[in-house]
């Protein structure tokens, strides 16, 4: 009985890491997109 609980907890811990990694990647991409928009707007308006 304890083995199944441990496996379930390990599976939940494993599920959390990829989601955090994906969230971090999306955050980095969003910052890069904002930076690109800023540089484009600066070049366009100046």
Write the layout of secondary structure elements.
Blueprint: H1 2-45
Description of the molecule:
By secondary structure, the protein is mainly α. Helix content is 96%, strand content 0%. It has 1 helix and no strands. The protein has one helix at residues 2-45. It is rod-shaped and about 65 Å long. The termini are far apart.
Number of helices: 1
Radius of gyration: 20 Å
Low-confidence stretches: none
Order of helices and strands: H
Q: What proportion strand?
A: under 5%
Q: Mean pLDDT, rounded to whole units?
A: 80
What structural class should be given to the helix and strand makeup? mainly alpha
Characterize the overall form: rod-shaped
Share of helical residues: over 70%
Give me the count of strands.
Answer: 0
Distance between the termini: 69 Å
| Sheet with most strands | none
